[in-house]
Amino acid sequence: MKVILIKYGELTTKGENRNEFIKLLTKNIKNILKGLNPIIERNRVRMYIECDDADKAIKKLQKVFGIHGVVPAYKIEPDEKIIKEKALELLKNKEGTFKVETNRADKNYPIPSMEFNNIMGGYILKNTNLKVDVHNPDTVLHIEIRVEGTYIYTDVIKGMGGYPVGTQGKGLLMLSGGIDSPVAGYLALKRGIDIDCLYFEAPPHTSPEAKEKVIKLASIVNEYSGNIRLLVVPFTKLQEEIYKNHADTYMITIMRRMMYRIASEVCHKNHYKAIINGESIGQVASQTLDSINVIECVADMPIIRPVACMDKLEIIDVAKNIGTYETSILPYEDCCTIFLPKHPVIKPKLDKCLAIEKRFDFESLIEETINGIEIIDDFSHNTDLL
Ligand code: ATP
Ligand code: MG
After folding, report:
1. d(CA 84, CA 86)
2. Per residue in 299-320, pLDDT tens?
3. Which CATH number fits domain 170-376: 3.40.50.620, 3.20.20.70, 2.170.150.40, 3.40.1190.20?
4. Left, alpha or beta for 49 (phi > 0: left; psi -120 to 50: alpha)?
5. Where are the domains of the chain?
6. 65 and 7 in contact (C-beta within 8 Å)?
């Protein structure tokens, strides 16, 4: 039967935290393989997964943080004849040199590891064109004879490495349809921060396609987490109110102060430990250090900007690698151009912001907006389209 072995790698060296990490990794893997009916068994050094579609699962597992190696393997009877047959099948398309590495963990098995290496080596030499090289072989045939079963495999696919998502708790990613924020989300996951996403939509000023695009981006980022929920914030009323009250060149500054206020409150209510976003210093007027100063002071949460000091080309490289770029460059905009001032203020002043915000009751609008949040947590439809 085809099974998958998971090697934890650096996790195994983590001492007392190890059990916690393995538990978290198991949970993440279960989420990632949802729909494939995985049966997972684990011990201190390995995980064994049986599921419906092993090839599909192997692809998904290559995106899970905390996995050092993904190993497509066969679980077979510990019978010499069967092991030999399977060995030839696995080596069928291999060329060059090989070596056999037997690990007889089940000491009840009568043949010791070294002797079994020799038996198998001789058999393979006789039945294939491969040559032996014990020092630097092209292919290693691994045979693990364990109490729970015998596993045989040749290829170890490199995993993402790192630590399982969630070791740092959960943060809230401000996710837009652009290039930067999905990359920011991925980088946060990579550091062990699990995320949910917060998207501000303003229909009819923003289109249904813009929302679909963000859902799709969330689903792609979710391939690295398995645990993401997308919170959609109805931002129309608040945005229109800011516009009506003549924010003019301060339109974006005030809009972003409102976004941060909402994000902060959502964090407090749901125990997220930080706000994460895709701001990059100096990229646009609202991301100068002066702007950041008057904008983020409304938030009483740590704000993490994983791409703050990356330039656009570096961000694009990551976006291409993780598979979000093609979706991000689709044309649907998150913000209607009528709200965008021709010359947004580059050095906004705090007292001017406060004066504009005094003109309307933004606090009750914020409350109403938060009460209207829609939660999307099923991306199976989207991921299947990929
Ligand atoms: P681009 O990749 O084109 O720069 P962007 O998404 O980075 O797009 P910016 O205007 O630079 O857009 O916004 C900076 C950050 O603010 C985003 O990375 C995102 O984290 C957050 N943000 C902007 N608009 C929204 C929105 N509608 N919903 C949620 N977060 C948003
Ligand atoms: Mg940006």
Report:
1. 5
2. 999 999 999 999 999 999 999 9
3. 3.40.50.620
4. beta
5. 2-161, 170-376
6. no
CA distance 290 to 353: 13
Strand partners, 75: 151
pLDDT of residue 51: 95
Q: From ligand 1's centre to the CA of 379, what distance in Å? A: 21
Look up residue 111 and give its two tokens: 């043949």
Pocket test for ligand 1, best of 172, 173, 175, 180 (most atoms within 8 A of CB): 180
Pairwise CA distance, residues 291 & 265, whole Å: 21
Contact 273, 169 (CB under 8 A): yes
pTM: 0.89
Q: Are 148 and 41 in contact (CB under 8 A)?
A: yes
Who contacts 195 (Cβ-Cβ below 8 Å, separation ≥6)? Answer: 170, 171, 172, 173, 185, 188, 189, 221, 225, 228, 276
Place of tokens 């907006």: 369
Contact 345, 253 (CB under 8 A): yes
Percentage of residues of the chain with pLDDT beyond 70: 96
For the domain made up of 2-161, the CATH class stated in words is alpha beta
Between the CA of 162 and the centroid of ligand 1 the distance, in Å, is 27
Query: What Å distances lie between residue 25 and 18, 20, 64, 66, 260, CA to CA?
Result: 10, 9, 8, 7, 32
238's tokens: 């608040």
